[in-house]
Amino acid sequence: MNNILIDGEWRPALDPAGSFRAVDPADGTELSDLYPISGFSDIEEALRAAHRDVPELAETRPEVLAEFLEGFAAGIEARTEELVETAHLETALPQEPRLRSVELPRTTFQLRQAAAAARDRSWCRATIDTKVDIRSKYGPLGGPVAVFGPNNFPFAYNSAAGTDSASAIAAGNPVIAKAHPGHPGTTRIFAEIAHNIGARCGLPPATFQMVFHLEPESGYKFVAHPFLGASTFTGSRPAGLRLKEAADRAGKPIYIETSSVNPIFILPGALAERRDKIADEIFNSCTVGAGQFCTKPGLIMLIQDRDGNGEAFFEALRQSFERTPAAILVARSVLDGIRIALEMMTKAGAEIVAGGHAVEARGFRHENTLLRVSGDVFLKNPKELQQEAFGPVSLCVFARDPLQMLDIASALEGNLTGSVYGHTAGHDDEIYEKIAAILRFKVGRFLNDKVPTGVTVSASMVHGGPYPAAGHPGFTAVGFPAAMLRFAALHGYDHVRHNRLPPELQDKNPTGKMWRLIDGEWTRRDV
After folding, report:
1. Average pLDDT, the chain
2. Catalytic: which of 67, 70, 90, 257?
3. Which listed residue (90, 294, 367, 504) is catalytic?
4. Residues 249, 293: one domain?
5. 456 lies in some domain
6. 305: pLDDT strictly greater than 90
7. Looking at the domain assignment, is residue 440 inside a domain?
8. Helix, strand or coil for residue 328?
9. Is position 286 annotated as part of the catalytic site?
10. Angle subtended by helix axes 62-78 and 184-201, to nearest 10
11. Is 484 within 8 Å of 167 (Cβ atoms)?
12. I want to staple 480 with a disulfide (CB 3.0 to 4.6 A). Which of 107, 117, 239, 242 is the partner?
């Protein structure tokens, strides 16, 4: 059985609650490696070790944290082939271009972006008011960050190497990664790299720790533990909300990303101008990666127009869904989730017009599935018809007129993204402005004439949104330095002697390039 990484040592689980094997989604067979389901004693030991090392890590120079993150990225690149082959076996995601040429480079880019933010230090928002001698900045939480990763991105959102762990360490916090059972071997390789690079950089031994799996009750205790600084979860809404409830009761920060239907509003002028082009864009966005993106368009809004463009668009979309072969899904749980969502949506009045069934074959596949419903029915059952079907499933809603489209926009829950397609010459501007005014407060990232799949790693990216898509509307899980603020506390210093202040708050700018707010002015100068 594979060892877990606790306090700088690879060792067996102390009191495992069981074991598991990863499954090859292409044929449904178990892989050979056996992994432990840790009991809570492993988590307690990891928390104690991290709690011990918190002060030392908090005093570690940002340059050392940056060296670790950059070394981690280089270590990943050195083991590219092993990572790609393992992840492909565990998830059935294509080696090319998805894993080797897209997701792995994104992962190393994220790590280097986190390193650059740590080295620059401006992320901490040092604020100095000289007249009253009060100074503040963001700093580490004072406890480790627990990272629960998802099943659909074995690299970029991996609990050991993804954006959450990179953000937490760049902000000066230890990380305890909980591998996803869908790709434990991939996570083990990342943990090996992190462990080796951490030792080379001289980081405290509990800076990075990893377990493979937990029972649910252990997870609830984990996110509520007194030693924990914060936790982050990406995955199903039921699991995420149960973890959030446990963390909230204990007063512990938790950042969840659970589900999103990512509504797209397609206005009549846009259809009249470029109907077929938009249909192709929407179909590709709905089915890329077998629809297993959290930004997949699950809800497409149209107006039942007199010229028939809405129906023609829908027919083109239906044909694309129907004629395209089913792709492999990453896990049996995805199939189960699609079945439950379809049952709920059809019971609420939606009609399946393409697909609708799991494919009778070895492995995990589901037909590309398109549904439709009227605006009247949607407004009667908005909750049931906003169920995320994680996979190649989308629902078209036909509003009877622009006013009903506004009512539909108002009935939406919080989402990661929302998009509006309009006429390029402005023929839809009046209804566009009204929809945009509503949708702006329903989504984290608002798009115009663009599909939402594809999350660019940039400083301005917002990957978050209102509840229930995410647990807090003020944060992003992608983009540096903003993603780091989830794992930071605001530290204030009132009349503290100058030599006892952190370097970022002393009169001399510690890097000469760091931005600080001094007496109301953002500047790089010394005090």
Report:
1. 97
2. 257
3. 294
4. no
5. no
6. no
7. yes
8. strand
9. no
10. 140
11. yes
12. 117
For residue 218, give both structure tokens: 């252990």
State the residue range of the domain holding 512: 492-523
Please tell me the predicted confidence (pLDDT) of residue 181.
97
The secondary element (H helix, E strand) that includes residue 24 is strand 23-24
Enter the pTM of the model. 0.95
Nearest to 309 by CA among 229, 246, 378, 398: 398
DSSP-derived secondary structure letter, 290 = G
By three-state DSSP, how is residue 214 classified?
strand
Bridge partners of 445, per DSSP, are 417
Rounded CA gap, 273 and 200, in Å? Answer: 59
- 88 pLDDT more than 90: yes
424: tokens are 């390029």
Examine the domain organization and report whether 197 and 308 are in the same domain: no
Token output for 174: 């230890």
Residue 22 CB neighbour total at 10 angstroms = 25
Residue 221: partners with Cβ closer than 8 Å, 6 or more residues away: 40, 43, 246
**What is the H or E stretch that residue 395 is in?**
strand 393-399
For strand 145-148 and strand 29-30, is the pairing parallel, antiparallel, or unpaired? unpaired
Chain segment 135-170, per-residue pLDDT in tens: 999 999 999 999 999 999 999 999 999 999 999 999
CA distance 109 to 101: 12
**Within a domain: 120:** yes
What is the mean pLDDT of the segment spanning 390-407?
97
Say what the pLDDT of residue 315 is.
96
User: What 3-state class would DSSP assign to 92?
Assistant: coil
Taking a C-beta distance cutoff of 8 angstroms, is the pair 41, 375 a contact? no
Asked if 257 is an active-site residue, the reply is yes
Instruction: Specify which residues 279 forms β-bridges with.
Output: none
Sign (positive or negative) of CA dihedral 307, 309, 310, 314? positive
